[in-house]
Specification:
Helix content is 32%, strand content 19%. Strand 3 and strand 4 form a beta hairpin. The radius of gyration is 17 Å and the shape is globular. It comes from Ahrensia marina.
Length: 256
Amino acid sequence: MIFAALPQAAGAKTICTIVLDAGSSDVLHEKGECDRRATPASTFKVALALIGFDAGYLKDAQSPVLPFKEGYVDWAGKEWRQDTTPARWMRYSVVWYSQQIAKALGAQRISGDLQKIGFGNADISGDKGYNNGLERAWIASSLEISPREQVVYLSRMLRYELPVSAEAVDLTKSIVQIDQGQGGWTVHGKTGLAFPRNADRSFNRSRGFGWYVGWAEKGGRQVVFARLIQDEKRQKTTPSTRAKASLLKDLDGLTR
């Protein structure tokens, strides 16, 4: 099988790979624990974009422009320390921009909309006792989603079946990054990276979760996919980078 040759095979586990036909929702490939929920990490940005555009807080790919301010998280360095648009937010996975959207919309709106679209447990409460849901619920905290739930809501999005406006769907689709997969597939996807917490609340960097979710098109076909891996020891590259690279490599074979 393909998985024996994956770059993350040594020191990492593929929790699930699942591919659906976007139109019929027929399962084309499924391997692993695809009902196992985990932190969505930055894959949450796709759902948050849908909610933000539907609410009117996000206007289009280039607005609103929000300025970086001292005190905002800047884990990714200079790419996060500058004015950011929705398109730039998605491209560079800017966490503080997500936090500003979340604070503008509020926990009640976000949780309610996540329930409506079927995004995992829709729990925006954050770390128990820390009142930080609008800052990190989706980053190794209260919000969790399974790979199967990822592909189901994404396939519904592509069919315009979610309870959000068609314009919100189109605008969300317009800012998701495009890559080329092997076999001629045009792939629209979002990575996600998060490290679970140790007992002292430090990050366990040897057990990182890596997601790659999205949809792909080729010759009139459209499929939806999710791959979730978890490291078993610390690696030189992030699990999200490896999840994406391996999925782009494998996708053509998974759709046959």
